[in-house]
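Service request form, structural biology core

Requester: graduate student, group of Dr. S.
Request type: structure prediction, single chain
Budget code: on file
Notes: please return the result as structure tokens.

Sequence provided:
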Amino acid sequence: MKTVLITGAVRNTGLAIARRFASEGWQVAITSRDSESEQARKTVFDLEKEYGIKARGYSMSYNSISDIRNTFQKVKEDFGGLDTFVANSAALGIGVDLLGTEEADFDSIVDVNLKGTFFCCQSAAELMKENGGSIVTIGSVQGTGAVAGRTVYGITKAAISQLVRSMAFELGEYGIRANNIVAGAIHSDRWDSLSPEELAARRSRYPAGRESTEEEISNAVWFLGTDLSKTITGTDLTVDSGISVCLLPYKKKEN
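Core staff response, request fulfilled:
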């Protein structure tokens, strides 16, 4: 039976990814900042009950290398190995622009999004070296273009794309693939407070007419994380409702 580990998977996109793999009979390991929280316990319980699979939750600070290494060792002990790793956790860095960034702001975002992702991928590769596997990172269109107030976040997401290319090159001999989801807007609970007018304004920018659902992102991760994509490695798969093809703000034609 195959095993997937997803970071930050007790809610939103991470949970949708966990459910996608569980629905296919995979064993699922998830991390959160606090695995003893009621939400984390409930997530693991619900996955096992609904899908009849083995699931485990782990407390892991994404900016702690010792935490990361200990967690992957526990996954090995609990599941015997790892087939797919999904680096989903991220510090959003909202409002951290170039001129207003303090050292503490910079470090807190880079430590999670880049350093944490790097060492998680390293630990995943160590578990996969004997039997191969797939590493999928969750990137962002903000790593390919600039928006206000997300400078440091965008830097880290751009770096993850390069990390994926380097992993594909270095780990190919072990049968390990690495790919990156370049995600655009994803509907999550953060959207629930938006007014109908705000929602309409956001969606008017996207050629596809709306943001991605969490399930649509999880389908892309499923594709890259499984044998459906056996010869795909070192790539960016863009799932962004078409926003990255717009040289100017997208406007729909008037009817």
